[in-house]
Amino acid sequence: MVTAGKMELPHRSRVDNRVPSQRMVDAGYRPVPPSRVQWVFGESLAAGTDLSSPAEVIAVWKGSAGHCAALFENIGNGAVARVDGAAGTFWVLDIAGWENE
Q1: pTM of the model
Q2: Residue 56: in which H helix or E strand, if any?
Q3: Which of 17, 11, 18, 7 is closest to 44 using CA atoms?
Q4: What pLDDT was estimated at residue 4?
Q5: Which CATH architecture has domain 4-98?
């Protein structure tokens, strides 16, 4: 995961042990894929006080091969959220799409 200040964040929830795809479906996302394709779910996280705008967060993610791939491969839908807390600002990007063949 790419973060400001090298803070590590889990993709699996510590509260209920759900992974990003479970949280997306539980939140109401209903994928309707074309027939006979593999769905892909992904999540990118960032945290810290140095990231103050979506453009800065995307620039950091683009600098990481894995996060950059999540931004540009297999994406059909995406959503980003920003939450400010005592430990700083947290950014989450959840994406879903189908496997490119």
Answers
A1: 0.64
A2: helix 54-62
A3: 11
A4: 40
A5: 3-Layer(aba) Sandwich (3.40)
Domain residue limits, the chain: 4-98
Going by C-beta distance under 8 Å and a sequence separation of 6 or more, which residues neighbour residue 10?
Answer: none
* Whether 4 contacts 49, CB under 8 Å: yes
Please give the structure tokens belonging to residue 62. Answer: 């683009």
Three-state SS for 59-86 is HHHHCCHHHHHHHHCCCCEEEEEEEEEC
Alpha carbons within 13 A on the beta-carbon side of 15: 1
Pairing of strands 39-48, 88-98: antiparallel
Tens digits of residue pLDDT in 8-47: 445 666 667 777 778 778 878 776 666 667 777 778 888 8
